[in-house]
Please model this.
Amino acid sequence: MPVHFKPRWALPERTATPEGVFRNRRAFLKTAGIAAGAIAAGPAHANIFDRLLGGDNVPTPDVENDPSAGLYPAPRNEAYQVMRPISDENLVTTYNNFYEFGSHKRIFKAAQKLQIRPWTVTIDGMVEKEQTLDIDTLLRKMSLEERVYRHRCVEAWSMVVPWTGFPMADLVALAKPLSGAKYIRTETFMEPDIASGQRQSWYPWPYVEGLTMEEATNPLAFLVTGAYGAPIEEQNGAPLRMALPWKYGFKSAKSLVRFTFTDERPSSFWMDIAGAEYGFWANVNPEVAHARWSQATEQPLGSDERIPTLLYNGYADEVAGLYADKEGERLYY
Ligand code: MTE
Model:
């Protein structure tokens, strides 16, 4: 039975302003001539930047303790570029959606509680042989590369991030799915002891998402283990998340523990909450408004401008063919 309440995204556009508040603070800092220096100086000065923002201290990345740190930076795959500036790392790591740690944007400190080692990933369902792999074993089997991708949240903010990871098709190959498998259901960790959001029982935890086998094996579908040339931080979905850049951001589930191959279309976390507003496909389309607000434009993180949103978030050449035979389905929300 779906839970009938509105996610924060369901706010009318004019009231979805945390990003605006953030930007205004940045504008103030710029005026004061401080922000640029703080950002350029990186994590060591991030606390100054954050104190001025009035928030919690920005955590220092715990790269030294991460056994995979030596794998970064990985070579960049120049086939995946974006003709827009890369978003500021300090914004990308401090302005997040991760409902497991709260339904607001400033969860980065709470997310440090997530223990990302040991971490196992289970591949099960319609596969030749079910398996559970330690994340570092999985990483050793994969060839990591960096790709610069757009990311478009349904809340109408966007970012450009240099992710590191491996094609999802490589995980599918490792899984050896049976011929009847049509979908992959992904599941995020479930640890209510450390993730306070998961103690809010009105949400249908764990966070589940799903995609078709054709989508998962499209070359754009990427499994992310790093960002900005280092292991990905907890708040961005360590140690393993998806990047499906042609879809609204909620499809790119974080901190994954399970991939289940199935012949049934999975329902998702947001479909179970508000299925009329959040569907299975959720492909970006500027011409199809969300139930509550327009998707015509977007606000890049850290910018004052609104830019036009592109069909499939700019990736139509790569993915439009996936949907050619799906007319009549709710492809865009
Ligand atoms: N994955 C999980 N497990 N929980 C979440 O709340 N939020 C989604 C997506 N993946 C979410 C998630 C949404 S709405 C967006 S826009 C992106 O993560 C945000 O990713 P970021 O915080 O790295 O920018």
Q: What stands out?
A: The pocket of MTE is lined by residues 96-100, 153, 188, 207, 236-237, 249-250, 252-255 (CB under 6 Å). The chain has one domain: 13-322.
